[in-house]
Specification:
Shape: globular
Number of strands: 16
Helix content: 25-40%
Strand content: 5-15%
Oligomer: single chain
Structural class: alpha/beta
Order of helices and strands: EHHEHEHEEEEHEHEHEHEHHHEEHEEEH
Distance between the termini: 40 Å
Strand order of the largest sheet: 2-11-10-9-8-3-4
Number of helices: 13
């Protein structure tokens, strides 16, 4: 039996610290934006304190230790070889994506995304003069199979192997074949639905993108937050075709709860593509680290493995508790099965077609703040996203509020909480 070393039950008060997540009214419980309510690993804190104690905070360079840390982590954790020259520092995955969209598209070209997907992708596309081309994922829950609006359908192409979300291959090829399409942003693992894409699925995406001359930005920021015993597949590691067309965005920030450190990397095998991205990041001045960005990343990758292993066990136990609670206490809500992230995608179609209305009601009546599903695309309208990366007592508080709010909502709207949807 393994010895528990880290205390994830500890409550740390984040109010009054400038926290974006906790900038809410007294009595409200935020379980929305994707950061964790756990203190960073002691090993990271030790490295930051050492840097702080030095007392001088001038301009920083990227030392060999930074490259080595990324290379060793991806080789040992994901069996994926990265060469030093393939890595470029950047201040975050989102700044990188925005810079790449600016550099690799011309005005009004299409960028394909598989929705529902991380809402900031929309911003990175639209704010930089390109067009969002949504390719809705297929959703299957029992006998529900939908590729857009949450309506019951039948037919081929639904998610397989007990997965509730899958790719609509016919629709994806049509989107990629559009002459105006130049980029695809691929979320791997997928936020918010929690899918770990298989090697075969990634390979098929790579073949289609190569066929139609489309470059792939693979956002892999959630790659280490997988169910214990499961593993993600780096997009460029699937085939030479995938490696040749891919810009891989990676970071320790989600995994180790250090997003405020603004530290990330892009990894690009294709030297021509790498040069263009290097120019984009430097032109936009997002390729230089602050004084804490490098030591935080190095400490995370070199010394944070044990902390992460315990974190994954804790988070996926939280996921299990939430899923079982919904089945037992609120069966009209459904937690989508997932093998990655600490974000639970919850189907509310059993009581309402409008997840936004429901989530606003929850916050007003119980103080529970979650993210409405429509932020992730039109096909997310009947869903919301719940962040369970928090001490167990906080998760239990959230579930209590969710049950109370759902009961009140159903009583007012004449729906039935105790019937399966």
């Amino acid at each position: 039996m393994s010895i528990i070393k880290y205390d994830f039950d500890k409550i740390t008060d984040r109010r009054g610290t400038g926290s974006f997540k906790w900038d809410v009214a007294e009595g409200e419980l935020p379980m929305w934006v994707a950061d964790m309510d756990f203190e960073a690993a002691p090993e990271i804190l030790e490295a930051l304190k050492k840097r702080l104690d030095h007392g001088i905070f001038g301009y920083s360079v990227i030392p060999d230790e930074w490259y080595d840390a990324y290379i060793h982590w991806w080789q040992s954790r994901h069996d994926y070889g990265i060469k030093r020259e393939e890595l470029i520092f950047c201040t975050g995955v989102v700044p990188a994506i925005s810079s790449i969209v600016r550099k690799l598209t011309t005005p009004n070209e299409n960028v394909v995304i598989l929705t529902p997907v991380y809402n900031i992708f929309f911003n990175s596309i639209i704010n930089n003069g390109a067009r969002v081309l949504e390719c809705p994922l297929l959703y299957r829950r029992g006998d529900i199979c939908s590729s857009g609006e949450h309506t019951e359908q039948t037919g081929n192409g639904c998610a397989q192997d007990a997965q509730e979300y899958g790719i609509d291959w016919e629709n994806l090829e049509k989107a990629l074949a559009d002459p105006q399409t130049s980029l695809m942003i691929f979320c791997n693992p997928h936020n918010p639905v929690g899918r770990i894409w298989s090697r075969d699925e990634i390979g098929k995406v790579g073949v289609l993108c190569k066929k139609y001359g489309v470059t792939v930005i693979s956002d892999e920021i959630h790659c280490d937050l997988t169910r214990p015993g499961t593993e993600y597949v780096p997009f460029p590691n699937v085939s030479e075709e995938c490696a040749d067309i891919c810009i891989q965005c990676i970071a320790p920030t989600k995994t180790f709860n250090i997003a405020g450190m603004q530290t990330a990397a892009v990894c690009i095998k294709n030297p021509f593509l790498r040069h263009k991205v290097w120019r984009a990041l430097n032109t936009d001045e997002v390729a230089e680290p602050n004084v804490f960005a490098v030591p935080a990343a190095v400490a995370a990758f070199e010394r944070g493995g044990a902390w992460l292993d315990e974190l994954r066990e804790y988070v996926f136990e939280n996921r299990r508790i939430v899923g079982e609670f919904l089945e037992r206490e609120i069966p009209c809500l459904h937690a989508v099965r997932a093998d990655a992230t600490y974000l639970i995608w919850i189907d509310v179609s059993g009581i309402s077609p409008d997840g936004t209305e429901f989530t606003e009601y929850l916050r007003q009546k119980t103080g529970l703040k979650v993210t409405e599903g429509e932020e992730y695309g039109k096909c997310g309208k009947a869903f919301f996203r719940l962040n369970v990366a928090a001490p167990r007592s906080v998760v239990e508080d959230g579930l209590s509020r969710l049950k109370r709010g759902t009961e009140m909502y159903c009583e007012e709207h004449k729906c039935y909480i105790n019937e399966q949807s």
